[in-house]
Amino acid sequence: MDPIDQSPLFISLLFVGLMVIPLLLRFERKQLGSKELVLLALLTAFAAVSRVPFAGIPSVQPTTFVIIVAAFIFGAESGFIIGAGAALVSNIFLGQGPWTPWQMVSWGLVGLSAGLLRQPLLKWKWIRLLFGFIWGFLFGWIMNAWVFLSMEEQTLTSFLAVYAASFYFDLAHALSNVFFLALFAKTWIRILERFKQKYGISNVA
């Protein structure tokens, strides 16, 4: 492929990087104690590692669920950091590539939006389930963008083909989010709230 033909992909990767860097820099300036840093590291690690055993089942994993629930309790910026970190760390085991920045942004946005909308999401279970279902598709649609931009021939037909081909995987992701949220969200929220109160941790970020 000619380097000029790859320019849309390079531009898109630059754009993705510019989305991630400001939030990381903002987070960097925060004065966090050791308890907060350890907590973020643990949640990031768990979100990442929980993806690995499900690698053989395309699009089915509890990573999105962990990011959503963590953002409910610890806030939007924490949700973004956990989401972006989970993508980066899990790909150490599953393989890094040009898709990694896109996954970092996708899961980061899951956490960011869950934190920003946590009041209605915590109040009504059906809204949580709908939120998880919608993000199953949004995640896939964002990831489809880099697939399309990496193609040699970028036409409306190829664009529609990429998004049509991903429907099953997006649906699997959406339904798995609903499954994990329906079965485990209440317990996880209670545990994380108790942990937050026991160690005197306010919203991490």
Automatic annotation (TrEMBL):
Gene Ontology MF: a single term: transmembrane transporter activity
Pfam families: ECF_trnsprt (PF12822)
Record keywords: Membrane, Transmembrane, Transmembrane helix
UniProt cross-references to InterPro entries, sorted A to Z: ECF_substrate-spec_UCP037395, ECF_trnsprt_substrate-spec
Membrane-spanning residues: 7-25, 37-54, 66-93, 99-117, 129-149, 161-185
Keyword Transmembrane on entry: yes
Upper lineage: Bacteria, Bacillati, Bacillota, Bacilli, Bacillales
Name of the protein this chain belongs to: ECF transporter S component
Annotated Gene3D superfamilies: 1.10.1760.20
Tagged with keyword Cell wall biogenesis/degradation: no
